[in-house]
């Protein structure tokens, strides 16, 4: 039973060291928040594929993208 406990501890340590839980939280937030928010604002069509540059989406980055898309929309008027 000792080996099982140490393996579980190793797994917990690995998850913590590599910030896996942070990554999962980020991915969940992205799926649950950013895409619906863009759709609600009319800045994302149903069939549009979002591009990921491999970096975390910060609030400033999100704002810049929203502003850029709003400018593109309003430029038509």
TrEMBL record:
Residues 18-70 form the EFCAB10 C-terminal EF-hand domain. Signal peptide: none annotated. Pfam families: EF_EFCAB10_C. InterPro entries: DD_EFCAB10, EF_EFCAB10_C, EFC10. Transmembrane segments: none annotated. It comes from the Eukaryota. CDD domains: DD_EFCAB10. This is EF-hand calcium binding domain 10.
């Amino acid at each position: 039973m000792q080996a099982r406990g140490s393996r579980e501890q190793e797994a917990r340590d690995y998850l913590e060291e590599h910030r896996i839980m942070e990554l999962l939280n980020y991915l969940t937030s992205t799926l649950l928040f950013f895409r619906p928010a863009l759709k609600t604002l009319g800045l994302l069509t149903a069939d549009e594929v979002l591009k990921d540059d491999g970096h975390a989406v910060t609030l400033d980055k999100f704002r810049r993208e929203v502003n850029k898309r709003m400018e593109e929309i309003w430029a038509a008027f």
